[in-house]
């Protein structure tokens, strides 16, 4: 039970919990950094498990439980606060934001039981979806009327929820080898994403998400 992959998974969970605290203290932008930290831990726990050849049901369940918090509840909470700050006409409307949490949980359950997703994803993965959601407070600095519109927020919530459980094929960033010829699109995506994030930070994430989905179409069309 106590091993490196599980320790990294717990670090993912811990980071998500801290992000939630920042979120409910109204500091949505700081919460975004803990999402990135959770994503880093989530990436390396799987890598460590494969490298150490550790595979058990406890690690798999723990990973999903951590992800429900970091990449399920946290993005729902951020969207909830965005709704509350919007022009929503009803006091209960912000609770609609937690549709993201519900569909994130469904997506994680689907992933755990879908043998088609051992290498790549079917449906948008929860970390990428969460990165998109946490970018919205930053986008609001440039487009306050857009992010402050409850209809836009509701539409984003519905579209993100759909993408999570859709049948759209999305490549993962797992590498069986690092040969350029076999991983060209993945390398291009990583290089462009790093460049965009370095240029515009969190504001670039919506563009990165569109790039991810677009390159996934190209990737699976050619494979």
Automatic annotation (TrEMBL):
Write out the GO MF terms: CDP-diacylglycerol-serine O-phosphatidyltransferase activity
Entry's transmembrane regions: 33-52, 64-86, 92-109, 121-140, 146-166, 187-220
Cellular component terms (Gene Ontology) = endomembrane system; membrane
Q: What is its EC number?
A: 2.7.8.8
Q: Which UniProt keywords are listed?
A: Lipid biosynthesis, Lipid metabolism, Membrane, Phospholipid biosynthesis, Phospholipid metabolism, Transferase, Transmembrane, Transmembrane helix
* BP GO annotations: phospholipid biosynthetic process
Q: What class does this enzyme belong to in the EC scheme?
A: transferase
User: Which compartments is it annotated to reside in?
Assistant: Endomembrane system
Main localisation: membrane
Q: Does the keyword Membrane apply?
A: yes
Kindly give the membrane topology term recorded for this protein. Multi-pass membrane protein
What the entry lists under InterPro entries is as follows:
CDP-alcohol_PTase-I, CDP-diaglyc--ser_O-PTrfase, CDP-OH_P_trans, CDP-OH_PTrfase_TM_dom, CDP_ALCOHOL_P_TRANSF_CS
Reactions catalysed, semicolon-separated, are: a CDP-1,2-diacyl-sn-glycerol + L-serine = a 1,2-diacyl-sn-glycero-3-phospho-L-serine + CMP + H(+)
Q: Which family does it belong to?
A: Belongs to the CDP-alcohol phosphatidyltransferase class-I family.
Q: What is this protein called?
A: CDP-diacylglycerol--serine O-phosphatidyltransferase
Instruction: Specify the species.
Output: Pedobacter xixiisoli
**Taxonomy-wise, where does this protein's organism fall, top ranks first?**
Bacteria, Pseudomonadati, Bacteroidota, Sphingobacteriia, Sphingobacteriales
């Amino acid at each position: 039970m106590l091993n490196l992959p599980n320790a990294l998974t717990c670090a993912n969970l811990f980071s998500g919990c801290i992000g939630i605290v920042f979120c409910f203290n109204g500091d949505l932008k700081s919460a975004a950094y803990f999402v990135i930290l959770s994503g880093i831990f989530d990436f390396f726990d799987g890598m460590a498990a494969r490298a150490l050849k550790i595979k058990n049901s406890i690690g798999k369940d723990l990973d999903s439980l951590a992800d429900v918090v970091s990449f399920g509840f946290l993005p729902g909470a951020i969207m909830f606060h965005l709704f509350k700050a919007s022009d929503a006409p009803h006091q209960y409307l912000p609770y609609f934001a937690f549709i993201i949490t519900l569909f994130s949980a469904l997506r994680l359950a689907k992933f755990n039981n879908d043998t088609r997703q051992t290498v790549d994803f079917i449906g948008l993965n929860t970390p990428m979806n969460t990165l998109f959601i946490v970018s919205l407070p930053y986008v609001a600095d440039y487009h306050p009327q857009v992010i402050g519109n409850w209809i836009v927020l509701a539409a984003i919530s519905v579209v993100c929820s759909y993408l999570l459980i859709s049948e759209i094929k999305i490549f993962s960033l797992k590498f069986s080898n690092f040969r350029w010829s076999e991983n060209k699109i993945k390398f291009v995506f990583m290089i462009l994403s790093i460049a965009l994030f370095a240029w515009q930070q969190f504001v670039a994430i919506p563009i990165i998400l569109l790039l991810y989905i677009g390159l996934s179409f190209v990737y699976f069309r050619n494979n």
